[in-house]
Fold this sequence. Notes:
heterodimer, A: mainly alpha, 2 domains, three-stranded antiparallel β-sheet, 3 strands, B: mainly alpha, elongated
Amino acid sequence: MKLTQRxxxxxxxxxxxxxxxxxxxxxxxxxxxxxxxxSVAQAVTTLRPREVEGxxxxxxxxxxxxxxxxxxxxxxxxxxxxxRLLNWLPDDMLKRAIVAQHEFFSGVAHSKVCxxxxxxxxxxxxxxxxxxxxxxxxxxxxxxxxxxNIAPAFALVNNFPHESQAA
Amino acid sequence: MNDHxxxxxxxxxxxxxSTRWSELTQKAINDACAxxxxxxxxxxxxxxxxxxAALGAPLNEEDYIAQLLALPKLSDFAIRxxxxxxxxxxxxxxxxxxxKITEDSSPARRGDAGARKITRARELGLTTVPAPAEPxxxxxxxxxxxxxxxxxxxxxxxxxxxxx
Lengths: 167, 164
């Protein structure tokens, strides 16, 4: 999920410049006319508690756009993004994040992809799972999503190569 | 020699003969069944002894059994049984028999002959049909998927392999 600096300013009720200042450390992709699209997972962590109470998170999610390819979340480079998001999450969202991670775990366990090659990376995959757009909007706003459908495909697509013992 | 039209005409023309023939056919089929082979009524026509008996001659049990066991279906069964039991003579005899198949076939038909040979060998229990090879098991496939850089390709393959 991506959003622009303008979207951020509107959602957080801050000035355009403030939005820009807060987003400087976030990764972005450049769209048409040079518009920068920032990832929601990084943007929410810059919100102030007052803004969160004012419902800024839901507005951020509502204004965000989703790339058609929703399964791939960027490999091991995205791990620190997920970790920072998890550290930032307020209590109610943290509860949903834990629910999502449990659902992911059992979704993989009950599927055909439950093999050593996936299970050895399950901890990292569980972390990345929070960044999947459907899951992220579940964690941030509570929109229900079918974890059992997403989990196996997500695990395969984002799985890390097997590290062989003989390097 | 192998055309039994006359015999069939005779049998069909007379109610006595056809009753006797059907009884004898049933008996032959039952006897073959005891050896584990299913005979068709047409196979019974190949037994001289049974045909004679249908026409009124007394049935010579010894000859009848010998002829029954010499039928291709039953002799195949006997050979298969001997080979399965580990009879080396039967085995080498069958191999020699099979080796005759390709002797003088033209190059164009060598493939056919080879196919016939292997089919026959399998029928006789000389070789068994190899089990269809499972190229990779699930674990290896999932491991390979992890090594593919393009994540769209990963999903395509996973769908093809029926993993998701």
